[in-house]
Amino acid sequence: MHFSSAAESLAASKNPLYLLRDELNHDGRAVIDLVRGNVNEHGIVFPPEVLSAILQDAAKSARVYQPDSFGQTPAREAVCAYYNGLIPANQLVITPGTSVSYWYCFKLLAEPGDEILTPQPSYPLFDYIAKLCGVNLRHYRLREDRDWTIDLNHLEDQITTKTRAIVLISPHNPTGMVAGDSDLRALAEIATRHRLPIISDEVFSEFLFGMESLPRPASTNAPLVFTLNGFSKMFALPGMKIGWIGLSGDPGLVAKSLSAMELISDTFSARKRDSAICGAANLPTGTEVLVGLQEVD
């Protein structure tokens, strides 16, 4: 039986570090796992009684399914308020978690064989998403001798004719580095010179120490920024996979990106299937179509 090259490459053995952890756990040894990112396992949980009330109210409001390619308007307005209007509600896309947000961005920006710049050190999420998308990763250094700040010269040296985006993780996992305003302005200048979008991963934005607010690439003059965040880390709800992508920058680039992003997101909703059925039957798009297997000749 044939499997794709992606399937073959993803079927790798477990990381040796995790193999050792499993062995120690099996032997009954006490292990403090500093690699695990699940905040619930470290005693940080969303108040269950508050969550229960929220879910009950939401279930009543959502009893009639009304799909929207970009996500429900009240949700996008709430995210917009979180950014104090920095990213308008009509430039936000609700997604099934930040990992899927990355997949959306990679598919939007890169063809198979193209390159995405990511920081080093980092974590292996990008490797798997890149393999699924058929894109290659190049890495730019974070300087350990300078509190893990971005090596901007090295970053620019890594840009090739195949580079399609720069990934920024701030606050950074695993170093905790937070990119400052000056670094973000310099990064925006590099992105402008090379006409590259910035994918800004801000999932740890609520884990700030000694800072009142997070410097954001969306506040710079970068030509195009995709701001990624979600519920998982923000509300200590790792099992509730709700994320978003905020688009900002040049209005023309934002509009083009939103148009393509709508199709990408819509592909996974019922609306797209209804539109296809309406087109095949020569019916107006938006017509409610009810099909029963017993009614089809």
SSE topology:
Blueprint: H1 5-10, H2 16-26, H3 48-61, H4 73-82, E1 92-95, H5 98-109, E2 115-120, H6 125-133, E3 136-143, E4 149-150, H7 152-157, E5 163-169, H8 181-193, E6 198-201, E7 224-230, H9 231-234, E8 243-249, H10 251-266, H11 270-280
Parallel strand pairs: 2-3, 2-5, 5-6, 6-7
Antiparallel strand pairs: 1-8, 3-4, 7-8
Helix pairs in contact: 5-6
Write structural notes for this entry.
The chain is α/β, with parallel strands linked by helices and 297 residues long. The protein folds into two domains: 38 residues, no CATH class; 224 residues, Aspartate Aminotransferase, domain 2, CATH 3.40.640.10. Helices cover 38% and strands 15% of the residues. It contains eleven helices and eight strands. Strands 1-8-7-6-5-2-3-4 form an eight-stranded mixed β-sheet, with helices on both faces. A hairpin with a 5-residue loop joins β3 and β4. α5 crosses α6. The protein is globular.
